[in-house]
From TrEMBL:
Name by which UniProt lists this protein: Ig-like domain-containing protein
Superkingdom assignment: Eukaryota
Signal peptide residue numbers: 1-23
Pfam families associated with the record: C2-set_2, Ig_3, V-set
Topology of this chain in the membrane: Single-pass type I membrane protein
Assigned GO CC terms: adherens junction; plasma membrane
Organism field: Megalops atlanticus (Tarpon)
Length: 502
């Protein structure tokens, strides 16, 4: 791409300059690069004009730090000369040049086994007659692939009580040019510290250390060093941290329910440690170990029944290479078990009681819920009876039944009055199964027959069970007297004056 653009640029220049007559030029790339040890081609083309000028000699020079040094010379009659420091690594690409012919239009050189010291500008100079000298320049950059390695700073990291950050791993990308970039990938909450040093030969060594506070939590964690060189990930090495730490001690076995005569209780000293615990030591604060105790490894076995002598504060010292830490448990002995039969001696008492408490609480909530629903249904029906129902005059006196009055628990169906829901034009009660009965009463009949088998009140009765609420309202008042504040209606229903005037 760049090459194509460059070439077309030169063609354009040639087209512009050729007609001018004295416009010879030297064509080169602006820059080239190569890795140490590889080969690179430095292009040099002489663009002659018409009439052509005569090429007397071509000289390649290294231009560095303000000074020029001859690299190679091609002469049409004398031949080719490559100078000592470059003798083995520089050659002209065109065999014709090497064969001492006068055709020196293409004096491209091949530069092999590149060294860092080869990085410089290279001048290709044409000496002509009668036009004089023409020259151009290419900048050669030499890259060096870095060598990368990752090391744990110390083979083992010891967790200490201090909060000082220490380097746990180092990643090194040495002698690279251009320098590489080092990043860390880990779940650890540490930080990286990176330094670059420039070597005498121009390469750069990058060293990055990962620092953290070593702890139990950092043990076995993965730490990955990623090296990016010239925008490319060239390595990703991981280490798993090995952090040594003192024992973390807990004592298991006391469930708070050591009652007299309980059999075969025990205490176990559990320690999380790296390296593993080598020594466990038990002691009883302010006293000596009971006689019936047997110590095996990290466990205290109390043989036989529990006695009051067992009570006390038990301490377990666990020791590994790093240090010694203690755990303690206060054992108390009760006269009786805290929980019903000691069937499961491993079941802590708290769990039991909290389970029961939860059960009780759940039961209570359910009961409350049921009560709430019952109350809600009751109130809602009452409300409808006292408000909306007056308008449709569903409130009928004299047809109530009474359980107390020795009536059957459920009214006989023919007496069961049914009212359409939310109907304004149906003012009068209809008798199901009666001569002026409801249409489609067969289905209702069946539904109501089903009802007969049920308890008198049920919570989830449908809206159509009007007789229930009527019964509820009047069952203890089979022959009511119309109160002073009630207004009698022509159909036998009454409404409250209070409601009427609202
Ligand atoms: C030029 O090169 C010399 C030695 O090769 C070095 O000491 C000097 O610093 C260079 N000068 C510059 C300006 O780079
Ligand atoms: C080539 O190098 C010289 C000096 O080292 C610098 O002045 C010039 O800008 C460079 N040219 C290009 C195209 O990089
Ligand atoms: C550059 O120098 C370093 C030490 O200074 C050396 O290890 C390295 O090999 C050198 N690199 C090249 C490409 O010569
Ligand atoms: C006995 O120990 C348990 C658990 O440590 C504790 O909950 C309880 O209160 C103690 N009882 C007495 C009497 O100290
Ligand atoms: C025993 O306990 C008392 C206080 O409870 C304490 O002052 C004393 O130092 C303890 N003795 C031993 C030997 O630990
Ligand atoms: C416990 O001690 C016994 C000997 O008393 C030994 O054989 C066994 O390996 C030990 N177990 C552990 C886990 O240390």
């Amino acid at each position: 791409m760049a090459m194509a653009v460059l070439t077309s640029f030169w063609i354009f220049l040639m087209a512009v300059c050729m007609p001018g007559g004295s416009a010879q030029m030297v064509q080169m790339d602006a820059s080239k690069w190569g890795f140490v040890g590889t080969q690179v081609e430095l292009r040099c083309l002489f663009v002659n004009s018409n009439p052509p000028v005569k090429i007397s000699q071509v000289t390649w020079q290294k231009f560095l730090n303000g000074t020029k040094q001859n690299v190679a010379i091609a002469n049409p009659t004398m031949g080719v000369s490559v100078l000592p420091p470059f003798k083995d690594r520089v050659s002209f690409k065109q065999p014709a040049v090497r064969q001492r012919t006068p055709s020196l239009e293409d004096t491209t050189i091949m530069f092999s086994n590149l060294q860092l010291s080869d990085e410089a500008a290279y001048i290709c100079e044409y000496t002509t007659f009668p036009a004089g000298n023409r020259e151009n320049m290419v900048n050669l950059t030499v890259y060096a692939q870095p060598t990368t390695e990752m090391t744990l700073s110390t083979p083992t990291i010891v967790a200490r009580s201090s909060n000082r950050k220490t380097p746990v791993a180092t990643c090194l990308s040495a002698n690279g040019k251009p320098p590489s970039m080092i990043t860390w990938d880990t779940r650890l909450k540490g930080e990286a510290s990176t330094q670059e040093t420039i070597n005498a030969n121009g390469t750069i060594t990058v060293r990055s250390s990962y620092l953290l506070v070593p702890s139990r939590a950092t043990h076995q964690q993965k730490l990955t060093c990623i090296v990016t060189y010239r925008n490319e990930r060239i390595s990703a090495d991981s280490v798993i941290l090995n952090v040594l730490y003192e024992p973390e001690v807990t004592i298991e076995g006391f469930d708070g329910n050591w009652y007299l005569n309980r059999q075969d209780v025990q205490l176990t000293c559990k320690a999380d440690a790296n390296p593993p615990v080598t020594v466990y030591q038990w002691k009883l604060l302010n006293g000596s170990m009971p006689n019936n105790v047997e110590i095996r490894n990290n466990t205290l076995f109390f043989k036989g029944p529990v006695t009051n002598d067992l009570a006390g504060t038990y301490v377990c010292d666990a020791t590994n290479n790093i240090g010694t830490r203690s755990g303690l448990v206060e054992v108390n002995v009760t006269e009786f078990p805290n929980i019903p039969p000691p069937g499961g001696r491993e079941i802590p008492q708290e769990q039991h009681s909290s389970g029961a408490a939860i059960g009780g609480a759940v039961g209570g909530v359910v009961l409350l819920g049921v009560a709430g629903v019952l109350l809600f249904v009751f109130l809602r029906r009452r409300q409808r009876t006292f408000k909306g129902d007056y308008s449709t005059k569903k409130h009928v006196f004299g047809n109530g039944y009474s359980k107390a009055g020795g009536m059957p628990a459920h009214p006989p169906l023919p007496k069961n009055l049914q009212y359409p829901e939310d109907s304004d034009d149906e003012k009068k009660p209809a008798q199901i199964g009666g001569p002026g009965g409801f249409e489609g009463s067969d289905r209702d009949f069946e539904a109501d027959a089903e009802d007969l088998k049920r308890p008198y009140f049920t919570v989830d009765e449908g809206e159509s069970r009007e007789y229930d609420e009527r019964t509820l309202a009047f069952q203890y008042d089979p022959e009511p007297e119309i109160a002073d504040d009630m207004v009698s209606q022509t159909d036998g229903s009454v409404i409250s004056k209070k409601e009427w005037y609202v």
